[in-house]
Amino acid sequence: MPANFTPSNPDLTYLLSVSNGDKRFEKMLINTSIQSIDLKMVDVVSGLTEKDADKLRKAVHSLKPLFAVVGYNEMQKICSAAELQLAVSGSQQSCENDISSLKTQWPEAKKVLLHLFEIN
Fold first, then answer.
1. Residues 6+ apart with CB under 8 A from 100
2. What CA–CA distance (Å, rounded) separates 72 from 95?
3. What pLDDT sits at residue 5?
4. pTM to 2 decimals?
5. In contact, 37 and 66? CB cutoff 8 Å
6. Could you tell me if 40 and 81 are in contact, meaning their C-beta atoms sit under 8 angstroms apart?
7. How far out from the chain centre does Cα 14 lie?
8. Residues 42-70, buried b or exposed e (16+ Cβ, 10 A)?
9. CB distance 11 to 113 below 8 Å
10. HSE value, Cβ hemisphere, 13 Å, CA-based, for 110
11. What's the rounded Cα separation, in Å, for the pair 111 and 3?
12. What is the pLDDT of residues 68-103, one digit of tens each?
């Protein structure tokens, strides 16, 4: 994980630009994105458990736009790196550190988003 990555500081530039100041829309988009990320993280764990590199690659690929929406561009970059490593090597071992970082950082990042957008 890059040293400058902090879950406490999401870059919400994209979200704010598409919401046009509509707080309800922002909250809905964040909530939907969080739910989608949670589901895809289950797929990541499943791919690891099943030792299914293709399933894992597809899961990290689908996380990229979701992390972009919620402002965690560094996590998006980690997904891109993991996806590339999986495509090239076909082995989940090539990206274990990246996947571990995602699994460790996402719960904290999620808490920050829930707090920022007052989602219960």
1. none
2. 19
3. 62
4. 0.91
5. yes
6. no
7. 15
8. ebbeebbeeeebebbbbbbbbbbebbbbb
9. no
10. 17
11. 20
12. 999 999 999 999 999 999 999 988 888 999 999 999
